[in-house]
Amino acid sequence: MSISRELDELEREEANCRRCPLWRDATQAVSGAGDPKARLMLVGEQPGDKEDLEGIPFVGPAGRLLDTAMAEAGLRREEVFLTNSVKHFKHDQRGKRRLHKRPNAYEIDRCRWWLTKEFELVAPQLAVAMGATAFRGMASRPGKVSELRGRLLKDVCEVPVYVTVHPSFLLRIRDRGDREREYGRFVRDLKECNRLASA
Ligand code: URA
């Protein structure tokens, strides 16, 4: 069976995931998407409101920023594989609004089952952990982005890992100068990941 068809099969299995309670309040599981033979896999935290409704990773505000940063780093969405360490949207309902809630260690670790299968099928040269939840999803242990960022970590999981910030972190920075500086660092990280994955 082709990798693409195996990923489709995986998506069908994820749709029925009951490994933790998060499926109950989510619209659907959001599976990884992109090139099934990608050299680079980018891993986020969990789908947001828009991703939950559309069933596609990184289509909301963080995804738009990621697309722009990837373009500056010479990467296109179609040539990478985008996924999340947690496949269901965890949130609090406040009236009509659904507010993002960070997944806990149990939920991340239960969802590792799916990430493992994505690693096996796509077999990227490099996986980028965007934020601490993504790192936990890969390493099955906590880690601080500030300490791990910028290094090639070869013994964390099945594939080499590079840690950087999550694009949502950039969206939350109020000061324009700080935001621009951090955005520049993020683009440089993506460029470095592109280089490492091509080496
Ligand atoms: N944030 C994530 O971590 N993943 C998405 O898919 C969207 C926003």
List its salient traits.
globular; 199 residues; six-stranded mixed sheet; 8 strands; binds uracil; single chain; Uracil-DNA Glycosylase, subunit E; two-stranded antiparallel sheet; alpha/beta
**Percent helix:** 40-55%
Which strand-content bin applies to the residues?
15-25%
Number of strands: 8
Mean pLDDT, rounded to whole units? 98
Overview of this structure, please?
With 199 residues, the chain is α/β, with parallel strands linked by helices. It has helices at residues 3-15, 49-54, 61-72, 105-122, 132-139, 145-148, 167-172, 176-198, and strands at residues 33-34, 40-44, 81-84, 91-94, 97-100, 126-130, 152-153, 161-164. The strands form 2 sheets. The chain has a 6-stranded mixed beta sheet with strand order 1-3-2-6-8-7. A two-stranded antiparallel ribbon has the order 4-5. The protein is globular.
List the helices and strands and how they pair.
Elements: H1 3-15, E1 33-34, E2 40-44, H2 49-54, H3 61-72, E3 81-84, E4 91-94, E5 97-100, H4 105-122, E6 126-130, H5 132-139, H6 145-148, E7 152-153, E8 161-164, H7 167-172, H8 176-198
Helix pairs in contact: 1-4, 4-5
The structure holds uracil (URA).
In short:
By secondary structure, this protein is an alpha/beta fold.
